[in-house]
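Can't paste images in this forum, so I'm doing it all in text. The chain is below; anyone willing to post the predicted structure tokens underneath?
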Amino acid sequence: MSRIGKKPIDIPDGVSVNIKAHIVTAKGSKGELKVPISEKINVSIDSSVLTVKPAVKEKKISVLWGLSRALIQNAVTGVHQGWGKVLEIYGIGYRAQLKDKKLDLQVGQSHPIVISPPEGITFETSQETFEGQTIQVIKVKGIDKKLVGDVASNIRSIKPPEPYKASKALHKEEINELLNQVRYEAETKLTARRDLAILYFFLRTGKRRAEVLNLRWGDIRRWNGETTVEFRVKGGESEMRVVKSKIHDVLLAYLEAAERLEGMEQDTPLWTGQVELMLP
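Text version of the structure:
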């Protein structure tokens, strides 16, 4: 039994689906897609509901069953609403613009990189504000989910994300998901407040992983409502940074809770690994 395969597919208004010779054809306002289906899978349509069922009994048929259903669903969604991927660009002097429907990238190379969209793919560029930062956005759109993903992956590979900076290694949606998961527990768990503060350090300061995770209690200085952090950077040097806005709030929330623990000396690591429920 396949949990995915047994789910029916609702065919929305404006979309027609035909089945012929084990090929499912979906037509909609966005275009047309054809999905070849194995002879071991039966596809039927009753009114506006499409059902996928196995035609044979085999040990691993559930894998093919679920895959077939997913491919058909992707095609139906694609011709009705379309698919899209969003890429963010970070970096001084980095930019992306459209020239005759082609994507022109300046991402630190000695020359611009021009990408021609394959058939069925369109590019869009814009600027958006996320977590207080203005970022340049590339949108890859099309009706074929696999093609959209492949094109977006190829663009991202031109200038791979910096693995030591979380704000550049993750998509905006991935960062939002992380923040939402941590915020949910931040009212009751010390470790959740710790993780939320660390995430905001990455997002707002642009510091490397080691520079944030190696902070100690003595590196935090609070005076007259202002909080200063001393980072140890490359070459053994130090850099002072005044933290403001959201990062200031989440850091203070963590500090106020962590100060209840014993043994917090100047050389004690700032980020405790202790799991403890917060007091009311």
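Residues 30 and 81 are 7 Å apart (CA to CA). The chain has three domains: 9-80, 83-160, 173-258.
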